[in-house]
Amino acid sequence: MNSSKKIQRMKIFCWIGVAVDALWVLALVWPKLFTVLTGNTAMADDLPVRLIAGIAASMMAGWTVLLAWAAQNPVERRAVMLFTAIPVITGLFCVSLIGNIYGQGGKVVWVLVKTAGLFAAMLWGYFTANKIAKEDVHEIHN
């Protein structure tokens, strides 16, 4: 696969991250959507949990914008993909795994699959972008 196709794939991965993050922002703001996605009804009536979810939604919205920014130039902004994989997606995977272990049921399994896939995609994007950047520097010096 040539560099332009790899860069296009990185952009797609970033935009997938944008879409997924935007969905979670909405779910964190609207408890009914959160319940649909996770099966967890804890946010419906619990103000402290909803306040914490609001903080999480703010952070998730910021990361959504950051991924959209990275999609514009994924080679130059490749660190965003690395930081998306570690610690962001890794943390989300761990939280979802704990939820699954402690009885959240099958609805959280799709979150585990999604986070594992996004983790692999973002790491691939970072390492591929890093390789392309090194090749570009090598070409400039030759």
List the helices and strands and how they pair.
Elements: H1 3-29, H2 31-38, H3 47-72, H4 79-101, H5 109-141
Helix pairs in contact: 1-2, 1-3, 1-5, 4-5
Overview of this protein structure:
Helix 1 runs antiparallel to helix 3 (47-72) and helix 1 (3-29) runs antiparallel to helix 5. The protein has five helices and no strands. It starts with a helix and ends with a helix. 82% of the residues lie in helices and 0% in strands. The radius of gyration is 17 Å and the shape is elongated. With 142 residues, it is mostly helical. It has one domain (3-141). The chain has helices spanning 3-29, 31-38, 47-72, 79-101, 109-141.
Number of strands: 0
**Helix percentage range:** over 70%
Q: Summarize the helix and strand pattern as letters.
A: HHHHH
Proportion of residues in extended strands: under 5%
Mean pLDDT: 90
Structural class: mainly alpha
What are the salient characteristics of this protein?
single chain, 142 residues, elongated, 0% strand, 5 helices, mainly alpha
Give a nutshell description of this structure.
With 142 residues, the chain is mainly α. Helix content is 82%, strand content 0%.
